[in-house]
Write a structure and sequence with these properties.
Blueprint: H1 2-14, H2 24-43, H3 48-68, H4 74-104, H5 115-124
Helix pairs in contact: 1-2, 2-3, 3-4
């Protein structure tokens, strides 16, 4: 999310946001989010990265829809490209609160998947 915000703020200086056409800076930001959350989802043993990745796909769908439909309302485009990102922030907040509460209760589970160990175990069987 930090990289997404930094990219968006940097791009706003050069290419201001617009809602009448595809917003190039937001498209780039959403691609960064998709790649970042997708990479986390591949290695995390949590559900929120999968949901965040799926919501980034929705954001990318908004850009494609705007590109494909000249008659799309600018308000609809603004909402469909922005609301999923806000939901991701809420997911991150909920996941953080859940993790803090679980750790205070002494419940700690492994947050990352070790794919090399999984392959090693499969090779032994």
């Amino acid at each position: 999310m930090v990289v997404m915000v930094a990219f968006q703020m940097t791009m706003e200086k050069f290419i201001p946001s617009e809602f009448n056409n595809v917003d190039i800076s937001s498209l780039g930001t959403d691609i960064i989010g998709l790649v970042g959350f997708g990479a986390i989802a591949l290695h995390a043993r949590r559900m929120w990265p999968l949901w965040a990745t799926a919501l980034q796909i929705v954001c990318l769908g908004a850009h494609f829809s705007r590109w494909a439909s000249i008659t799309m309302s600018p308000v609809a485009y603004a909402l469909i490209r922005s609301v999923p990102t806000a939901v991701i922030l809420l997911l991150l907040l909920a996941a953080t609160v859940r993790c803090v509460v679980a750790r205070r209760r002494g419940q700690v589970d492994v947050p990352w998947q070790d794919w090399s160990m999984l392959a090693w175990h499969r090779g032994r069987n």
